[in-house]
Amino acid sequence: MDLVPYVAAYIAIGIFVVAVVARFLMWRKLPMHVRWELYPVAHDKRAAYGGSYLEETNWWTKPRERSLSGEVKAMSAEILFLVALKEHNPKMWSRSFPFHFGLYLVIAATCLMLGGGLLAAISPSLMAGGFGKLIQYAVIGCGVGGLGLGLLGALGLLERRLTDPELKDFTSPADLFNLVFFVIAFGTALASFALVDRDFGRAMFFAHNLVTFKMAALPGEGMQLYLPVASVVLLGALCAYIPLTHMSHFVGKFFAYHAIRWNDEPNLKGGHEEKAIHALLGQPVSWAASHIKGDGKKNWVDVATEDLRK
Amino acid sequence: MKAPKSIKDLPRSDEPLAHIVNADQPPLPKPYGNGAELPEIAPLKAGTADKVVVLDDTVALNIPVPKNKEEEDALVQKFLSGLRKCLTAENNWTFLQPFLLSLEHCAKCQTCSDACHIYEESGKNPLYRPTYRSEIFRRIYFKYVKGGSTFTHGDIDLNWKTVARLIELAYRCNLCRRCAQTCPIGVDNALMAREIRKIASQEMGIQSKECHDNGSMLQLKVGSSTGMNALVVKDNIEFIVEDMTEKTGLDCSIPWDKEGAEILLMHNAGEIMAWPENVAAFAAIFNAAGVSWTLSSEHAAYDSINYGTWYDDVQFARTAILHAKAAAKLKVKKIVFGECGHAHKALTVIADKVLTGDLNVPREAAMPVLRDIVMSGKLKLDPSRNDFPVTLHDPCNYVRLMGVVMPQREVMKKVTPPGRFREMEPHGVHNYCCGGGSGFAIMSGHNFGDWRHHLSGRKKLRQVLEAFKNEPMDKEHPKYICAPCSNCKGQLRDIINYYDAWEKHGIGYGGLVELIVNAMADAKPGFIDWEWH
Lengths: 310, 533
Hints:
The structure holds two protein chains of two kinds. Chain A is mainly α. Chain A contains 13 helices and no strands. Chain A folds into two domains: 4-32 and 82-261, Fumarate Reductase Cytochrome B subunit; 274-304, no CATH class. The mean pLDDT of chain A is 95. Chain B is mostly helical. The chains are: A mainly alpha, B mainly alpha.
């Protein structure tokens, strides 16, 4: 029993990291595609009105000014506050924003606990003093706020999915299961805080042991023990589950924005992309329609340069 | 309103899934109102549904109804075969990453629905949601290709009706990508429609006749989707030059095949047939500004259209390569497109990752070139000649999809008197499609034109009416929609005719170059001839 929360946490973290890295690599290794950008492109200096470098004559002779801050600003607003959803679907945003922001706060609380645990191992005196208290207050604030907001958001989203005819028809059983999973995991953790661990002391003790590989038994018995253990196991399972589902859209979103919507990189004559393009055009085509007759031997160059006048 | 109750109705219902009447649609602004005096969508001819697949009030593709079980199964198997190919890097490197991201990550939040002009103008009929077709497509992918769980991804029956109707439904989207702009995750449901069209075309040989047989195939075989070969085009151009030189008093001469010219100008050949004044206006402006330019009489290069953009990557690549080859042969410094939106996007942006080496001739939009000429002071302009209300339509293909927003507005300020130009709302990259995008402007089989006027084009009419709401709405007070794109102009022409907007309310249309020439002090007054309409 003593080891259960630790083993659960290590496994969960392991699965999460491996699954996220695997997803990231899967998206990354896909071949170059044709340009399919959509304006405004955040790094363009004309992003405020949606303009691009293509507004200039002889644009290929001029240096392109990319604004990293423009991208960071747009991404931060999108990630933290879901601005696209707020603008285009405020009803959904009123549920989705607390859900996502709550999740971020829970992640922040977790990072603070793990960081605090590491600091305590390196410099016990630092964490024993005022700084340690500050971290603890931050953990309590982020943890309770995050779990509360996340729980409210998940309940709100569940209500919408179950009652709104616009969403109902498109909702799969797994969509409902995922939200119920959040409600149970966050609800249990919130109950653990309210009934057992009001100062997050046990949680921080657990985090400290986790980063120092001590795996000491959590204090208490009965509900005092089972509720925190259940919280860790459920939150761990959720952490491992997310990247295995379409909730891993945070990885896909990175590519959807950076590799597609905002990818306005031109292929300049003699540039580094030409070699890759030649390789892609050399691939076999097997599309069967009569105007192509791809036999798996003809490649893209063959079919694209076929003279139909003959 | 007749509408599907569920996405599961698509494979199951024996009846058309939607029927729109005027009363279902949001009323138009004054002077049209609730539509009581407007015609309804004309019904399909009796017996149509016995021969071809009918999804709703119209038919875009003429997919034959299978005669027996073998034909039904073949339709399904071919679709699955195409979908599998669409998931391979060899056959679909062009769009694999965007396609997979959109397949895998939709949160089904319906945020995109309200961005779609067709959905909105249908009175929010669920069939026309951007997600309706995409969700069915996703479920087919997860269940029948990936073997995924229906608990996770939802269920859908797969039969010939699912396939045929899904393909037909892919032709109820203008591919304007306004929905994608609103997606918080970056999912592109317009691309999903295009990928369905692609599977249908590249694997199953199912296309819109106007886009394929009479479109890209004709262009690749003869040289132009208009059917004109180089000799006929040159003849027509000669006539245009003669006529317009006399009309304007300007030098409207058009050089052909001038090697080493600064600019190879590529027009949509539809302009030559339908809007010759546009072709002449470009010539008058370029000649007056002393630009070194030329047209090309090479095969397919005198017609900038590339209909593959809407449905077929192979047809797209074939056309793009012919265009680039012509430019390389003439050793021009750059290609500039006339007022044709999809031609801009096709060769400038999409073909960017196809053209290499000598074929990688720089391409640029017409608007910045015109802006530079107008701002250079080389043209003597008298904006008072354009003393009528003007609004500007932003063609999706080079505005939302290329970010060319301001140059045309800068020109507009120079060629119209103060207070005469007013924006549509929304405008720029957040504009609405004219309703003719993705091939619709040239599609009018059965009653497709009616459907287009009632659904896909109605939002633009609404925007135009709102832009001119403070103007007298009669023919004695002409108002100009500047639509610098051939397909958009074709669509606006049809909408104006259908709603009798010129005769009753004085709403006309034209391009940007016509406004410039109309303001040129050296030209004979009255280049814009309102009775064009």
